[in-house]
Amino acid sequence: MDPVALSLGVIQIRWYGVLMAVAFFLGYLLFKKFADEKGLPKTFADDFFAYLIPLAIIGARLFAVVVYEPRYYFSNPIKIFYIWEGGLASHGGMIGALIAVYLISKKYKVSFYSIADLLPIPFFLGAALGRIGNFINGELVGKVSDLPWAIKFDKYEGLRHPSQLYESLKNVILFASFLLIRKKKMPEGCFFWLGGLGYSILRFIVEFYKDLPSYNGLTTAQWISLPLIVFSVIMFVRLKKKV
Fold first, then answer.
1. Overall domain count for the chain
2. What is the pTM of this model?
3. Radius of gyration of the chain measured on its C-alpha atoms
4. Is 101 inside a domain boundary?
């Protein structure tokens, strides 16, 4: 599939950028709904997304540059700014989002976790759309496969696992699951850490299908996921015990 959705002379509008814009818009609508249900001020969602969008994008890009592909980007520094071509790391986006949560919690004088608990569902939806963008871009491809649904990607030999779509499906499953449980009573912060746990476990599994460098048998994302799984469990149990 052509990654360019529309060409206007020298200007190209790529599907990845369109999907990310849709992801932020739908995420905003969901976040606003949840914030209104929580009784937060009407301006809260607008103010939060004014922090969130730049911080999440910067965090996701810097993480991709420094952690995943430093050689490529440092040898082609101008490419660091070409975010429409892909290359946004979800873990970096999470860091940026948490900085935004901290800043807005201080501004409105509300607890950090009361806002953090609103993030998992919009994040899962946005991440699902972002992975479709990766698929259209033909990046982050899977390992060679002979399965019936294996895909031929440009610039790669053989048929491959559509690991980007596995990632997207994983996020859709998390999105639907957390929608079902979002009104269950639990202490502040538990919903957030439960989201981190679910995401990290499924990310760890999906990584086995990706054609990425491994270090002692695991990819970078898997090594990041392992401590996140442990820390999410610890924090969930700790907060649960406070009731």
1. 1
2. 0.91
3. 18
4. yes
